[in-house]
């Protein structure tokens, strides 16, 4: 039986651990927080699991929130807000669905399931200096410590061809809020402002039922950038007025959904503010042992959340790694690690490419967005691409020629 150590009990570490158990391996997860601490803590993100991740959860029997017991999104409500013009709004449909669940509920539930299936969960903080001990204990160590890195980031070389930014491209203000009406059709809202940045409105399930996440992706130095630094604790009313002001000016469709009498943070721990430098690292390193250490999740690919793709890519990478471990005979050597890197590279290139494109949209992409506003089949296929990043990137948006051919294919169909 293979014995795998996993540093970090986020979504990537837990998906990896649970899948390994399903495949007959032994897995130990080291995580600094207990389930109770996570439940009482600050929100971890505002992420929707796209349908590809939903299908992996179904295969593992861990789709504890699904269309039977939580709201699921059936598409994206797009809204483009150009100064001097009426907002342009259009809907794109999924054939599957996406779902948003408060990770303060989700992670503890997966921890419980991991232990129930025979996994070992150790509540301890691990640093890069602990690697010799961990490598002596386990046949292979995977590290998914998230954006905190805990000294691990320096072990994994950055990939310059995919790490295109020397600093953050957005300043982020993400919170769970009450007092927001549902959209119809029901799903995620992507509100784009070339002046201020983006607002992504995500249906979320939390402890007492449905709420909404407002994820402001504001351009540094832009007219809404102050939301990333404005203190809610110092003056809640001032903070909420600022949020409403940004919505009213730059995202009016979402502002129209707000009930001012009920609007407010869902709870005192329901706010994240800051900025992230997107970076992609090599998926393995050799540190003090002939056995490589594997990077997963946000340690391998740190993404700005503008497309909500980080957790979904992390889940994909965890699944592929578990499958590779189960298939591998013999010691885990550099050759094994290189094969894993090759196996996840195409998905990584596609996911990161689209994320970077949205952080600095080229003219051809803006033209494609405008075309989607008047072509339903074009918009639907694009929206489906959020659950199929390789198709989205390589067949739809990676360059002007690809985007033109993608649009033309739908124009031809509609003209027949």
Outline the structure in words.
Strands 3, 4, 5, 8, 9, 10, 11, 12 and 13 form a 9-stranded mixed β-sheet that branches. This protein has a 6-stranded mixed β-sheet with strand order 6-2-1-7-16-15, with helices on both faces. A two-stranded antiparallel ribbon has the order 14-17. A hairpin with a 2-residue loop joins strand 10 and strand 11. The protein has helices at residues 11-22, 35-40, 51-60, 103-116, 131-137, 236-250, 252-255, 297-300, 310-327, 334-359, 363-372, 376-384, 389-397, 400-415, and strands spanning 3-7, 26-31, 48-49, 73-80, 88-100, 120-123, 140-143, 171-178, 188-193, 197-206, 209-218, 264-265, 271-275, 279-280, 284-285, 293-295, 301-302. The protein is 38% helix and 22% strand. The chain is built from 14 helices and 17 strands. It folds into 3 domains: 3-65 and 103-165 and 277-358, 3-Layer(bba) Sandwich (FAD/NAD(P)-binding domain), CATH 3.50.50.60; 171-275, D-Amino Acid Oxidase, Chain A, domain 2 (2-Layer Sandwich), CATH 3.30.9.40; 362-415, no CATH class. By secondary structure, the chain is α/β, with parallel strands linked by helices. Helix 1 packs parallel to helix 4 (103-116). The protein is globular and about 65 Å long. The longest helix has 26 residues, at 334-359.
